[in-house]
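Field reference: sequence -> structure
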Amino acid sequence: MKKTINYRLTMPEKQLLKAKKISQKLLPDYAPDEIAALIEAGPERARELNALAAFQSIPSLGINFAEELISQGYYHFDQLQGKTAAALFDAFEQHCGTWADPCVEDSYRLLIHYIENRDDSKRWWHFTAERKAYREQHGFPANRPQKPWYSDEKYPKMKAYQRD
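Structure field:
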């Protein structure tokens, strides 16, 4: 398990911790439900904190990936059981309305591998060859979005990498 989980606490949540003299650096010592109680979170925020902790517990998967899973309605590994990485990735692209960087598909492959095996020795880049072989054989869905992810306003830093 990772040593640091990013909860993206709001300023009021940070202030509650500060008032209780609890450093954010100590949050890994608390269970997500304890953190929710400390920051006086409602049930939905508590559910989100639990999901952030669970998804980021997988090595090399970070806060952005965890938040994307939550935005698609996933809060527990159980909800992902039996799904394929390719299907999840294709659904992710549809959800975003853009095609995504290939490393995102590798991350979905790591996620499914972890759920099925609880193997924390792998990182997302260990699945690049598997992804390439799969896409070589199966390609992408016909309805794959045409707009690249780096041209989306959601990713302003990537505009610099866009080619004319």
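Note: The helical segments are 11-19, 32-38, 43-56, 63-71, 85-96, 102-117, 128-138.
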